Amino acid sequence: MSHKHATLQATVLATIQRHSMLEPHERVLVAVSGGPDSVCLLHVLHDLGYAVEVAHFDHQTRCGASGEDAAFVRELACSLDIPLHEGSEPVERNAQAAGESFEVYARRTRYAFLARTAAAAGLRAVATGHHADDAAETVLLRLVRGTTPKGLAGIPPVRTDGALRVLRPLIACSREEILAHVHAHEFPYRTDATNADLGVPRNRVRLELVPLLERHYNPNVRDALLRLAEVQRDEDALLDSLARAFLTGCRNDDGSLSRAAFQAGDLALQRRALALFAYEAGVVGDFEAVEAARRLLIDGATGQACDLGEGVLLRNGRDIAAIEDLPPRETGESALTVPGETFVFGRGYRVQLLETCPPEDLRRYCTPRRQVFDAEKMGAPLTVRRRQDGDRFSPLGMRGTVKLKDYFIARGMSRGDRVRQDLLLCDGKIAWVVGHAIDGRYAVTQRTTHLLQVDVD
Prior knowledge:
Blueprint: H1 3-18, E1 27-31, H2 36-47, E2 51-58, H3 65-79, E3 84-88, H4 91-98, H5 102-121, E4 125-127, H6 132-145, E5 158-161, E6 164-167, H7 175-184, H8 201-216, H9 221-250, E7 257-258, H10 259-263, H11 267-280, H12 287-299, E8 305-309, E9 312-316, E10 320-323, E11 333-335, E12 340-344, E13 347-354, H13 362-365, E14 370-374, E15 382-386, E16 392-393, E17 402-403, H14 404-410, H15 415-419, E18 422-426, E19 429-433, E20 451-456
Parallel strand pairs: 1-2, 1-4, 2-3, 4-6
Antiparallel strand pairs: 5-6, 7-10, 8-9, 9-10, 11-15, 12-13, 13-20, 14-20, 15-18, 16-17, 18-19
């Protein structure tokens, strides 16, 4: 084993131990894109003796090149005899349909896939290839865009999302060290040409802004940014604990906030406590929303309300403030006409039977508003309803089932969107979370002879 190999392994192992990332024999899902960072991460964790499984998500981009990445990862997992979990979605097209930027939609979709996959495989840890340069560039990007003190904490070594832990074992390794490692050991990897696209803000920070700062201001600017992030994470953890204690002191037994107790708190604690309060309601409130809510509790009139974000309202009483209940969700279950069109919850569901496959790849043909199923598997009555407590389904590409609630949270869906989510059922079982995933039990396979298509207006 080379000195460089041993040094990089030692750095990763020290990082894992310092942040209590993994137990010695814990299974971990490794997100592998095929690039040098994730390939390095996979090999190092495998060499350290961890029980690794691979997850790869194909964004269906770059004129088919992403499919070649998927094939590469498939080969890599096979060569190491490691279990592989795959997912795929036409991200660019779906991002446009959702009215979101490619980067934001892709990140949310990718992490949702990782969360679903981990849950289905019974894993509680996901490792990603983020490294020290990523962390420094994130701090700088947030700084120039405008951020909160929490944002300056950068990429945390460990992030907890419910029962899932997202780990960054390479966070103390530089990009240069990682590339030296994969080249020294001749590990093959894929190169994503879009990483050189200066139209992407993060690429401009990496390729233009950081080199400029290194040349003209501080040759060690990356280290300075990392120190700032580390100090900020420690201070952020302390302030969060103080804010949680303050929030607990402001709560009434019914979960509402005492305005008098809140008004007695320090300004910084007020803002942090409200951000935590909003997060518990399923909202990641921005500064403007949090500040508006703070002013509401301090100066707002009885009956006045403000939007914490995503339609979640905080309303003042005379002595308290509380989250206003959402309108009761529409209930009931409506049968669909097959074939034919049925209107349910204000949307049109058009069902048709197809004798032949569509002319293009089904992965590209299907969209958030159009899905194709195996008609024989969908032979029972089809109905549409809203979600219910305890709902579960088996997303295509996953083993086992996942709670619908966990699926929604992993996708970052707001409280209001979760309440209004339509579900297509076959014989009482979820076949399609409309606009999102289908249940793999109803998916088209090579043995499918008749297809059923559902379009939603």
